[in-house]
Amino acid sequence: MRRILLVEDNEMNRDAISRLLERRGFAVLTAADGAEGVRRCREELPDLVLMDLGLPVLDGFEATRRIKADPATAAIPVVALTARALTSDRDAALAAGCVDYDIKPVDLARLVGKIRALLGDGEAP
């Protein structure tokens, strides 16, 4: 089972997105701030990270930079998942090391399609 680390500070979003992804066959790990996200990524080595950008303690941009700077986690794809819909935010997320960018509210079909494409997993079961 593919493991996704969801780094999201909003508890309602974290719970809802986790449940939706679990129903699609993913195991979901969670973190409530950027520092915890970096730590959990190092400890758990998930297959993919969904990273909110507006996080407490350490924002998603810096958390992504730290994940990408660590040889143990550098190859893990990070997808920015945020309500920030400006082109400049997208560009900044990609510059920080994110491989893709998706906006909230989450379009589950689109997000799962991106996740599966990044993980090389064909169609949803």
Automatic annotation (TrEMBL):
The modification 4-aspartylphosphate is found at residue 52. InterPro entries: CheY-like_superfamily, Sig_transdc_resp-reg_receiver. Transmembrane segments: none annotated. Keywords: Phosphoprotein, Two-component regulatory system. SMART domains: REC (SM00448). The keyword Phosphoprotein applies. SUPFAM superfamilies: CheY-like. Pfam families: Response_reg. Residues 3-119 form the Response regulatory domain. This is Response regulator.
